[in-house]
Amino acid sequence: MDADQRLKDDGQDARLRALFHGAGPLPAPDDLEQRVLARLSTAPARVPVDSRPLLSWKAWVGALVAFLGLWLWAALPSTTVLPSAAMPEFALPKVDVLLALLSTPWTLMTIATGALLLLLDTVLIRPRLAARSV
Amino acid sequence: MTGPMPEEELIEAARKGDQQAYARLMRSYKHMVYTVCMRVLRNREEAEEATQDSFVKAYRNLASYQGGARFSTWLYSIAYRTALSALRARRTGTVDLEAAPDRVLAGPAPAFGHAQDLHAMVEEALSRMPAEDAALMTFYYLQDRSVEEIVTITGLSVSNVKVKLHRARKRMLELVQGHWKAEAWTLIND
Fold first, then answer.
1. How near does any CA of chain B get to the CA of A119, in Å?
2. How many angstroms separate the CA atoms of A88 and A91, rounded?
């Protein structure tokens, strides 16, 4: 079987692979690493830094507990009657009023916008690949 | 005496700013990266420059390498795109990556008959193909990458990679079969 005939069989891929492997990669310059390191020394690598939120989750939980406590304290009937003249009127909204307030389009849009911004922030903070491929 | 560090440790060390660890990574991959750049650019100076650029980019973006793919795949992807950018920048306007070099149809291919010419033979055949096809052939036959990995590296679709590989493979076989015949396979078997 001559070479022409052998090319037509199923081993063409294997032969091409052998041809490429026989040739091997092209030799890069010996001092390539030094050249790259010299360039890197002028501009250090960007070391990843942990970016933490301004308010930790504990602060958010604390604020929520404080808000709920205040609201409950105001909503529960009090046995103590304070002289209205001495104390200013300070009443937090009742549940139905609060729900009505929260369900207005403006409030819903505010919440949605906030959630969208938080989502965007999370996506932007997430490490990405330099080459958009993997 | 310390043994060779695993690649993951070298990457992690380089990520923390250890340039010597990165130099060791470069030593492992520089020939392949240079080959990729050379296949696309076909110019030694430009390929060297693109290789350096690729390694600089890779180092500066090591933090974004998450280990989802092989490090080499990630690195070759950077090299391939860097070389393509350099190719586009070389000429004003757009570059048709599908276009074969002018000398594809020009003149007979030189004869090869010595083992040391195997390298030149492959280069000659690849130089007669479009740059993108030559790069795909390198990924597939020299670096033993799967079609899926080539898709990851190049950003081309699976069908596109398959079509280009098929075309390039056919062209390569035509060249070997038509011009060099037994010499190529004799050299391989030597």
1. 20
2. 10
Q: Is the pLDDT of residue A39 over 80?
A: yes
Closest CA to B47 of A26, A33, A41, A24: A26
H-type alpha helices, A24-104:
32-42, 57-75, 95-102
Is B48's pLDDT higher than 60?
A: yes
Model's pTM, two decimal places? 0.62
Residues in chain A closer than 8 A to B55 (CB atoms):
32, 36
Question: ipTM value of the model?
Answer: 0.76
C-alpha span between A115 and A109 (Å, rounded): 10
SS3 assignment for B37-64: HHHHHCCHHHHHHHHHHHHHHHHHCHHH
Query: Using CA atoms, how far apart are residues A39 and A34, in angstroms rounded to an integer?
Result: 9
Q: Is A124 on the interface with B (CB under 8 A)?
A: no
Length of chain A: 134
